[in-house]
Amino acid sequence: MMVDSVEQRLAQASGDFLVALRMNDGFQSNLYDALTSVLSECAVQWQSEDCIPRLAVNVMVDLVIATQGAAELYPEPVRQQVYDASFHFNDLIGEAVGIDPVGNEES
């Protein structure tokens, strides 16, 4: 499947990472790195946008909680590694959907 848009790459990277976790394949650093890279790309691409694609919203709404839910499948220290990844995802999502206050006029 050809994946072109950043939101399609986000959906693919998120699915790859979460499926590996849920299949008990452990924490896959390469999949984590791919997902964090796409999330960072989203922040850059959407920094001046008034809205973001629905597919991306769909992915981001569930990413943190799904990652945390999968953490419970693993013993320590992998469990903590998965939780830490979820916290990082939360930060990256905040950057991707945040509003740049520099462009706003002051009252």
Index terms:
107 residues, globular, single chain, mainly alpha
Structure overview:
By secondary structure, this protein is mainly α. The protein has one domain (6-98). The protein is 68% helix and 0% strand. The protein has helices spanning 6-22, 29-46, 54-71, 78-97. It is globular, with a radius of gyration of 15 Å. The mean pLDDT is 91.
- What is the overall shape? globular
The proportion of strand residues reads under 5%
Q: List the total number of helices.
A: 4
Which blocks of ≥5 consecutive residues have pLDDT under 50? none
Structural domain tally: 1
Radius of gyration: 15 Å
Structural class, from secondary structure content?
mainly alpha
Kindly report the average pLDDT value.
91
Oligomer: single chain
Quick overview:
This protein has four helices and no strands. It is mainly α and 107 residues long. α2 (29-46) runs parallel beside α4 (78-97).
Q: What's the arrangement of secondary structure elements?
A:
Blueprint: H1 6-22, H2 29-46, H3 54-71, H4 78-97
